[in-house]
Amino acid sequence: MTNRTIKNSIPSEHVNMGPIRLRQPIPSRKIADLDPFILLHHYGPYYIDKNSNPFDLGPHPHRGFEPITFLFQGEQRHRDSLGNEEVVSAGGVQWTTAGHGIVHAEGPTKAFIEKGGYLEGIQLWLNLPAAKKLMPANYQHVKSEEMPTLMSDDNLIRVKIVSGELNGKIGKIETQTPVNSFIVEAQKGGKHFIELPKNHQALVYLVAGAAIINNEQLELNAKQCIEFNMDGDGFTIQATGNAKLLVLSGEPLKEPVATYGPFVMNTQPEIIQALNDYEAGKMGYLAP
What we know:
- By secondary structure, this protein is mainly β.
- 6% of the residues lie in helices and 51% in strands.
- It is built from 2 helices and 26 strands.
- The strands form 6 sheets. The chain has a 7-stranded antiparallel sheet, with no helix packed on it. Strands 2-3-4-11-6-9-12 form a 7-stranded antiparallel sheet. Strands 5-10-7-8 form a 4-stranded antiparallel sheet.
- The radius of gyration is 18 Å and the shape is globular.
- The termini are far apart.
């Protein structure tokens, strides 16, 4: 098995999204996107209580892509115009297929706000191909304990499979295009090789801790994202400290991308149509 070569090492710089300050490696000054991945936001850890809660996102629309939340700390409540209402706990993932359109809201639960605690997660925007941008919306939720797992030979690295396939184990999330998403939890000293499909674009993001990816050091304070070239069979993780990483790979769509706010389409006229459809109530309704 050969390691993929590293194309880019991307620092995850801070950006402001309204009252929320978060890290954003994609898009960045180095790369506009990493097809099929459009955006990656790493939020928190924030201390949330009844005196401080900047992360209460009221009803807002999406169309043309899949907004996905990987929750690492805390507890979030999801509501949407399809009638879904779920509480996502630490370690869980919510995978929304916006398709033709959906209105949703998310934020810490009332119980979590009352007791206080840290909230941390990643929101990923996964593009949909043109043929599926107007498909019916859908919502999936998978708990940490429901995810198939693999252990390294030294039993120091656990890989949780959210979507896709690894070594014959298949994630519970059903995807619209071939996409692998793995949460890696590593103890210091652990080493493991993760195989990737040869036709997949791939990245690894350091959530916390310290690790070496193919001899490239990732530090806790850097929160780096590594983009691989489409060569080799996969990559090697060596944990120089306890670490948590997100591994993503997917087939590039190689289609034009037009974005505006919460919409990801192929052309500007499609963006205008999305705005008109939302204002006309065609993406559903969700009470504040």
